[in-house]
Amino acid sequence: MYILLALVAACALGIALHFLLPHRELRGVAVTPAIATAAAGLIYTGLQWAGIAEDNGWLWLASIGGGLVLALVATLTLSAQRLHRDAQAKAALGI
């Protein structure tokens, strides 16, 4: 049940991350929180299977922080790709 706390925290911080990053008009509002939540769930589960208990602070830091870092990298990558594709499309159309 403690995994829900990590998932809710990662999702809430992912929402904040979405609004802090530039070019949010180029992506959906749920992309960054979804990536952060999924990554936090996978990291939390993997560390639990590795034998780290719920009372260990590294479990929480790794799952929530790792989820946010992965969401940050993925969101910046997606935004850069979208900007690049938009520039290519504008150049092809002569705009």
What does the model show?
The chain has 95 residues and is mainly α. It has three helices and no strands. Helix 1 packs parallel to helix 3.
Task: Please give the share of residues in helix.
Answer: over 70%
Overall 3D geometry?
elongated
Largest sheet: none
Count of alpha/pi helices = 3
Give the strand tally. 0
**Average pLDDT:** 96
Please identify the structural class as seen in this structure.
mainly alpha
* Span of the ends, CA to CA: 53 Å
Strand content: under 5%
H and E order:
HHH
Low-confidence stretches: none
Cα gyration radius (Å): 16 Å
Write the layout of secondary structure elements.
Layout: H1 2-20, H2 31-49, H3 57-93
Summarize the structure.
With 95 residues, this protein is mainly α.
Key phrases:
95 residues; single chain; mainly alpha; 0% strand; elongated
